[in-house]
């Protein structure tokens, strides 16, 4: 290719950087045969004379047709000249005759399969033609044949990024230095940013964009792209600082949306920006898109009340869309306007019912205090989508909330028949059994939940809590499962606590002390990882008291009582320790504190109620992939 004939590659990444869909585009501009100051560049064609020099001169002037004529005549006389054929291929490419160009390069490769200039040029043609799948293996061959020429590796990385093969693109760029040319250097940093973002490394992406911006700080487009990258890194203030002057000057919608999200992210004053975006003059179709994006963005940052205005206007623009009514009802519910939410949901239902809508209606009716209507709506959701786990869970959760445990069990048993390996269903069954007072069955279901769950911590946490709450000795299978997990995850302080505390309960009940060292090691590890949590210190105090290591028992029990002054158990144990140490006055003081704490101690039903509240929140809001 002619060294002076540049081209701009297609954008290699179009990534949503806002919940509402604003695009951050990282584009790369490279010329395979372009000259750079990097080591091991693609060799440049030596100066030519005669017909080749004339053809090169024609290409430099942009006269591809003249170059084609000269080269075609020359190749008829010198068909073995591969340099002339490569130049002819470039001429055809410049003339827009990509098929003819590809034929010429393929002819070169028939005779010289490792001619990396021809390989790179052919790969570039496929890339420009929107065929990255065909370009990628050819550019990979070119990179190998050229022994890693930086420009070819960079072009290869561009194509890999377009194919979302970000790990491979990162590998292709290892050791490649930024080009000397400022414009090419900017696009190189943008390419690296796109690769980093594709790999989920938002901080590295922002860093690369900042490097690009340094080279051209007055470029508004570059500033906006950098702001979007900083937004991904949650560097809210930096994103706002970059976007605000551009938006003030241009009133560009995408820039305004970036600025709005940055202001929302840093809990700043976003209303002026929001009003400017709202006042943008658009046709009805464009306005509808903007309104939805604004609403989604506001909702994602918890500004439910603000989003209602956007969604109401959206329903006015297109009154036939049930999804807009659904979103409006959801925003109204989250904003605490249950009656308005009900009205919006009913209008949406008139346009077309769905399981999602009935599920939302159940939530609305529950918030209004009409649990019978809520149950009917959840039942309707199940009827509309009988194979969907989430709707059966919603119905079961509603029944659990109102202590209808047997009915909840029936619903969950039906769900278990349909999806016997659903960890959420097993978790819910376990908790229903616990709330109903059947700890052994609760343990069995929670062990199943831990077996099926992609992330087991939630199920194991409830399993540990239930074992700690049992009046009898802990279940051996539960202890083994918790300790096995804590062995695999030694930095998980909570699991170390459960394992150590349950081993202590088991051995205390059995009257044996053979595992004392392990118990102390696990509880100490938990206490070190959770220095402000009373629980591991309380268990350490109990363990040292059991082992009659009085000074250590005193120290840990005092820490336990300081961190949790309502721990009746800690005060009672301190009273015993002080009595043993002959400090009778201190022992009596602790007994008074014990009596006071005992009166404040929640009974078993109250503890289960608190666990129920936590479970209901977890199953509805925090379970992964829900």
CATH topology assignment of one domain: Serine Threonine Protein Phosphatase 5, Tetratricopeptide repeat
Q: Strand order of the main beta sheet, please?
A: 1-2
Report the helical percentage.
over 70%
State the end-to-end CA separation: 53 Å
CATH class bucket of one domain:
Mainly Alpha
Low-confidence stretches: 1-47
Specify the structural class: mainly alpha
Task: Please state the oligomeric state of the protein chains shown.
Answer: single chain
Secondary-structure arrangement, i.e. CATH architecture of one domain: Alpha Horseshoe
What would the principal axes of the Cα set say about the shape? Answer: elongated
Largest beta-sheet details: 2 strands, antiparallel
How many helical elements?
Answer: 33
Number of DSSP E strands: 2
Strand content: under 5%
